[in-house]
Amino acid sequence: GRTGRFKSGESFFFSEERDFKIQQYFINVNSPKRQIVEDVYYLCLCQESIEVNSAGALLKYDPLEIHSALVFLKGEGYINYVKNGEAFLHICKNKYNPVLFVNWHHMHEKRKFKETGLEKMQEFFNFNGCYNNYLNIHFHEKELKKPCGNCQNCLM
Question: For 46-74, what is each residue's pLDDT tens digit?
């Protein structure tokens, strides 16, 4: 909303490094890289079960990347899995086509858009000037002639 732009208001920023790492985690889980997805899928076609850490070591990927690819493949309907313990998955192949029909370009653009948004948020949180002026410039509005005097940076 407009709170803080022309009236006083309160907002809370979560700008610790871990907050950005959490957001990057969500980007990775929702938009895994093509090569990782393909490698994990072809491994799934060859095996009936996967231990995530072993698959990570075999494919030379972080277990989190393996997990992200499995979540993606399950969401797209290519595989299903049943957890058997912490990291052991029984794979059920839903589609027997060895070719993945995924719009990789769209997925790449979606990931790039999210990463750019996260980078812009980091820039915003690290900005030392008037937040309202920063937002005016970002949203192509008229730049303030002087600091607003209402935002967190102006009040410090």
Answer: 887 788 888 888 999 988 888 889 888 88
Q: Which of 59, 58, 60, 70 is nearest to 29 (CA)?
A: 70
| Gap between the Cα atoms of 143 and 96, Å rounded | 57
How many residues does this entry show for the chain? 156
What's the CA gap between 111 and 59, in Å, rounded? 22
φ, ψ dihedrals at 26, nearest 5°:
-65, -35
Helix (H, G, I), strand (E, B) or coil at 97: coil
DSSP conformation class of 26: H
pTM: 0.65
Question: Helix 63-75 crosses helix 52-59 at what angle (to 10 degrees)?
Answer: 110
**Alpha helix segments (H runs only) across 101-149:** 104-126, 131-138
